[in-house]
Design brief:
5 strands; alpha+beta; single chain; about 110 residues; 5-stranded mixed beta sheet; Aminopeptidase
Length: about 110
């Protein structure tokens, strides 16, 4: 089992994720911390590009990044949108969680196989 898979299985803190349209990003916070993890996106009518994930050092290794991506994928799925996973963290998450790859735009599925 890789370190990334172990991160997904650890007990993780309560993570609050919200989409901030004006900033074109999803933000994740945890109780007791002022730090914010984020996933930068570029929405378009055809698909949303998931560009970059950043997790502050204080949040690393706690599953915050995985939860951020999981909830961002749920958000776009609920809206009937597909994604282009340019972000290496998002692509790696989707490789580990192939059951969620249905949200990847057909032209970009090769990025997560």
């Amino acid at each position: 089992m890789s370190g990334s898979e172990k991160d997904d299985e650890r007990a993780r803190p309560e993570v609050s994720v919200r989409y901030v349209p004006d900033a074109q990003r999803f933000e994740a916070t945890v109780p007791g911390s002022d730090d914010v993890a984020f996933l930068k996106v570029k929405p378009s009518p055809e698909f949303w590009t998931f560009e970059h994930t950043e997790v502050p050092e204080s949040m690393e290794g706690r599953g915050v990044g995985s939860e951020l991506v999981r909830q961002a994928l749920a958000h776009v799925r609920e809206r009937g949108v597909t994604i282009k996973p340019v972000c290496p963290f998002t692509a790696a998450y989707l490789e580990r969680h192939s059951e969620e790859a249905d949200v990847v735009h057909p032209d970009y599925r090769w990025m997560v196989e």
